Cytochrome P450 (Pleomassaria siparia CBS 279.74), 519 residues
Amino acid sequence: MEQPSYTASASMPNSAATAPRVLPSLPILLLCAVFVYIASVCVYRLRFHPLSKYPGPRLAAITDLAFAYYFLRGTAVDWIDEQHRRYGPIVRLGPMRLGYTSPEAVKDIVGHQTGNHKANRRNLLFSQPNSMFDGHNSVFNEENDILHRQQRKLFTNAFSDRALSAQESMIQNYVDKLVALMRKSAGAPRDAVKLWNFATFDIMADLAFGESLGNLEGDEYHPWVASMFAGFKLGVMISYLQHWPGMSLLLDLITPKSAKEEAMVHVANSNNSLTKRLERTDVERPDIWGLVLEKQKKGDAQMSRGSMNANSNIFMMAGTETTATALCGLTCLLLKNPDKMKKLVDEVRAVPSKEELNGLKMRHLKYLGAVIEEGLRVYPAVPAANLRDIAPGGNVIMGDHLPEKTVVGISHWSAFHSPLNFHNPDAFVPERWILDDEEYKEYHDFDKRHGFKPFSDGPRNCLGKNLAYYELRALLAHAVWHFDFELCPESENWLQGQKTWQLWDKPELMIRIKERSYE
Ligand code: HEM
């Protein structure tokens, strides 16, 4: 039998002989090109990238989507902690991002410029866009080092210990209002998150604008505060997502109108309160804006009204919720550790009268100070990292030269809970901060206290650190001087499983307040 011929020329018509069908179509070619591109980016990031020598999850080395996924779910702090436990004190958390927990990294990452070590820039991944303030920056999101320094200089007096002493009676007024509200609430379960927030928001509004928000007196959130809480989580997510290519437009389309309005309520409220404050000439107390205006008059750098608005806005966020969060953590930790609570109560109640429990006295209460440090360690009010972009030209971090624009940071939660940094890191042991307590020598010898910076460090550290410590001491000491507290059963596990969107997303913390017993 004759065999069929398979040669094109012998058996196929001419058109088939050219066989155009075997050539891939354009979409397939494009797909292949995309695949080759992605594959080479992956290989480059995993093998040849300057950060490829650092350990970490492979997916994170390839794409920032890994972090984005956990961030949007509110579990980024846990995810980062897991990576540090698995890979050690330096972990690659993104193609251009490294996370650290070593105390030695603090100065290199957030410290001042020294010799040939440059100061790194604040990373603005989670900052509000300055378009909300017509392009003006606050001290928080001012990237330019010189302009940032000028703004900080204008605020130094306002946040100094001297200015705080002059505010003591104003702050005491709110401490008394808190005590009155606690007394009124005695017996019934109360949400401590609200109580502490009422106090810190009232104090900050008075410090910044010379007016109370009336949270403590009204026993409810002022609508301004309520709108801040309503918009915070979404605001942080939007701030982060807007850095992704093409996302700004999409976010603008999908963000509910009500959320945009909430954000603008906060902006409008702080602008209006500032206008009212600036129009007043009768303010005798040296409040924040009074001291800034005074400095401006002396010829120190000037601050635009737009930047004043942006700063007022940031004070009402950074200077309120953080301190209240620290107080919530302290409340829960003390109630779960009755032996530590007893030591605190004994120390504070040894002060014979509430009048004597003043700023100076509280500074010298050793156990109170130790409790606050330990609370900030076990439940840091800012649990995430304060990110920095490596300075132009690159910079050396822990002996290694990193390329510019590498994003670096120290996750407070991971650094403060690392067994490499603290002995028995998850336990609440205020005595670790009392160095003459011989019983805890093991802690004193082991703990790497120099790396503990809950307010960060360097030129962009927390501007309100003194104020925060003052408020923490005054509110906590007066509360325990007056009352006994009990944790309600539903809040037994309050510290567990909390989500974070840069700050903690705190559930209610239910406590019972009782007049103190005078045994
Ligand atoms: C327990 C309470 C507080 C904690 C734990 C805390 C912590 C922090 C941290 C970690 C930073 C970031 C620093 C960095 O990026 O390196 C910061 C910045 C800042 N905080 Fe606080 N803070 C607290 C209370 C306050 C208060 C009461 C104010 C008062 C207004 C305040 C105002 C600010 C400002 C303005 C910045 C930006 C400073 C700058 O960029 O120059 N904070 N804070």
